[in-house]
Specification:
The protein is mostly helical. Strand 1 and strand 2 form a beta hairpin. It is built from 7 helices and 2 strands. The protein has a two-stranded antiparallel sheet.
Amino acid sequence: MTSWPTWGDWLATLPPAVRDSAVTLAERFKELGAQDPEEWARSEISEDIPQLARFMVLRALWREAISPWMDASALSDVAAAQRLIDAGADPHDVLLVARAGAYEAIVAAVCVLDEGGDPKARESDPGWHLVETDAECNPTGREIGGLHESLGETDPSGNKDADLWE
């Protein structure tokens, strides 16, 4: 296993402009709540992987599809959930089931995106790629992939999705 040099040692090896970019990028990851902002930034700089875009996509999916199921008020619009609670189910357990279902749906969606095409399609059928864009929505040429690999790491709770299965 290859170990990376410390953040400071690695920064010292970079040209000043790249070092400044790495520090700025790590600060942005920290602002966004990344658990290990320096590692995300180092990967983007060293490996030319659009990690900030990957992180932002995954965190948006948590925010919009998974995390809302942490609040009992989310159950108020779901008739089946209300019936379960009225029948004696613990609201926390109903929330966990809904949240786990949302998580599994997101896992399936990011796996489909990462696949780049339908494995059951004909060779002549189109596929897809998620690509990074700049602030004006111009493609940067860097593909956003491997989303399934980092979904747990981007859990805003810092639990790496472990609390979904309690």
